[in-house]
Amino acid sequence: MAEELLEKDSKGQGMTKGSRMILVGPPGVGKGTQAAFLEARLGLKHLSSGTIFRAEVEAETDLGRLAQSYINHGELVPNGVTIEMMAKRIRSDEVRKSGFVLDGFPRTIRQSVALDEMLDAMDMRLDKVVSISASDELVLSRLTGRMGCTKCGEIYHAKSKPPKREGLCDKCNGPLIIRTDDKPGTIIERLKVFREQTKPVIDYYREKGMLQVVDGSRTAEEVYTQIVCAEE
Ligand code: AP5
Ligand code: MG
Question: What is the Cα–Cα distance from 60 to 54, expressed in whole angstroms?
């Protein structure tokens, strides 16, 4: 399957190695799952703003302390620090060479405009923006049951992707944890924030003619195929 997709890519369709793309969508829709596939299979650097914030929280940095209170309430971390944190990574030599898949950034119009400006300044273009869609009921069921590896970040689900040994990562043996923001009340707030602040980002890229919408309710492999094969 992967070879077929790369063969198709080499003819100028879908995603290729070195592509620059954004995954946008509600909490729990599968952005992190798909970004991990794109990194493993196409070598695109996976840049997840949420994962970077959680690492800062874990390391007890000033940024981590600031971010934690917002994350625990399901609110967005302020634009200024978020843009600065992502810009540092997007501008790095490694990311310029590998291409990237942005997961969870941009999620406000101000972040989208800042991303445009930083890419313009580097004479780089985005290849596409993929909106992964699913109902609130589905994303709620996906977040209830999610576990993540504290060492390598692999994502599991109690029903759709259970680990072989309870509480331990199949890949690296690391302990699995449930995220502090995956509580029902916080999930509801994250969905509200998505509707109010991130839906306009989807419209922003639709108006630019860059948006591809994929059906996130399918299996993870089916969603991946939609992302890499479909035209904009
Ligand atoms: P972030 O970490 O980005 O969280 P999110 O957007 O709420 O999304 P999630 O990570 O919860 O879900 P996902 O779409 O990655 O789904 P996953 O692949 O895990 O942000 C967290 C917080 O950080 C924010 O609330 C905010 O406070 C802050 N923040 C982050 N970025 C920011 C920014 N730019 N500006 C300001 N603040 C920011 O999948 C979910 C589950 O479903 C898993 O268990 C998985 O195994 C399963 N699954 C996935 N796909 C499928 C499938 N197709 N079929 C069946 N199961 C599936
Ligand atoms: Mg995620």
Answer: 10
